[in-house]
Amino acid sequence: MLDIKLIREKKEWVEEQLRRREPGLSLDDIVALDVQRRSLQAETDAMRARQNAVSKEIAQRKQAKDSADDVMAEMKSLSDQIKEQAGRLRECEEEMTARVSELPNLPHESVPTDMDKKNNQVVRTYGEKRQFSFTPKNHLELGEMHQLFDFERGAKIAGSQFPLYLGWGAELEWALLTFMREHNRERGYQAVIPPLLLNRESTFTSGNLPKFEDQLYKCKDDPFYLLPTSEVPMTSLYRDEIIPEDRLPLYYTSQTPCFRREAGTYGAEERGLVRVHQFNKVEMYKFVTPETSYDELEKLVKDAEHIVEMLGLHYRTMLLVTGDIGNQSAKTYDIEVWLPGQNSYYEVSSCSNCEDYQARRGNIRCRPKDGKPRYLHTLNGSGLATPRLLISILENNQHEDGSIIIPEVLRKYLGGKERLECK
User: Fold this and answer.
1) pLDDT tens, 301-328?
2) Backbone φ, ψ for residue 204 (5° rounding)
3) CA 92 → CA 24, 145, 328, distances in Å?
4) Is the whole model's pTM more than 0.90, yes or no?
5) What CA–CA distance (Å, rounded) separates 336 from 305?
C-alpha cells in the first residue's frame, strides 16, 4: 500500500509514476477524500476538546451547588454530534483506505516503461535451445508413452486443468520438490510449512485483496481463501510485529500446492501442464532492510537461476516492463525455460521486490538499534514452480525412441534411475 502522506505531498509525481503502469490513473478522488478526512478529524477533535471543557464546567458547578442544566444540555448535544461525526469520519477513512489499497506499487526507476509484455527485456541467457535430429514429442505424448499423467481422471476427480500424476510422473514431481527444498536450505533459507487456508487479513497484506479477489478460490461457508502461492502466508509471518533490525535479512522457503482460478480462455498450446488450476511450487521469501533490498533481489534471482542450471535446462532471464509486473511489485524478473513442444519460452520463476508495499499493508516494521521503527522491504521468488519445469525436463531430454534422460541431480531421489525407458 502506498503512503497517503506521500500521495498528499507529491501527488503529481506519484501520479506520473503510477501512470507508467496504468495510463490515465488519477489520484484526485483519493486526495479529496484525504482532505475530507482531515477536516472531519479536526472538527471531531475540536468537539472532543469542547466536551472535555464542558465536563469540567459541570463538575465545577455541581461543586459550587449551581445549576448546570444548560451545560448538561450542551454535553448531550455534543455527545450526539460526536457520535454522528465519528460515523462520518469512519466511513470516510474506510473509503479512502479501500481506494488506496487498490493502487499498484510505484515501479522502480530501472523498470522499462511499456504496457506491452512482448517488450520485456532479456537480461541474460543460459545454454542454448536443443537442436533435434528428429521431430520431438510434446509432454502430452511423452506422458502417454510413459504413463506419467492422467488428465482425464484428474478432470473426473476435480475438473479440467487439475492434473493427476502417476508412477514416475509423481516420482519426478517429488524428486524436483525435494531437490529444490534442499537447494534452498543450503543457501540459507529456513523452511516453513504454512496453512493452506488463509484469512482475509493475510490475503490483503500480500496484495491479492481487494483488487484480485476474482482470481482466488474462496470457501463458501468459512472466511477463508485457498492459498494461491505461499508468498501470501509468508508475508504475514510478522504481520503487526516489529523485528530488531540486526536480525535482518530473514530468508524463508516453503513448499505448497497452489490454487489459481486462472479465469479466461486458453488455446491448445496451453493444454496439459502448461496452465493449471493446481500446482506445486517451492517459494523463496525475504524480509530485508530498505537499503539492501535491490542487492537482495539480484541474489534471489541468482538462487532461482542456479536451480535451473543444475537441472541442465536452457533459460532466459527477463526484466519485466511496467505493464507486466504484479500489482504489489516495484521490480520483477522472470526466468523462462524453453519448451520445445510449445516452441516457446514459459515462466517457471518470478522474482520481485515489493519494497515497503506489503509491509505497510501488514504493518511489518524493523527497529534500528538506535532509532524509531520503520517499514522493512519484502521480496518473493519462485524457487521453482514445477509444471513447466517438468515439461522442460521431459521435452528437452527426450531421445528419438521416446526414452527420457533424468537430470543427474534428481537421480538420488529416484533410487539412482537414470532414464525413463519406453515400454
Assistant:
1) 999 999 999 999 999 999 999 999 999 9
2) -70, -45
3) 24, 62, 24
4) yes
5) 10
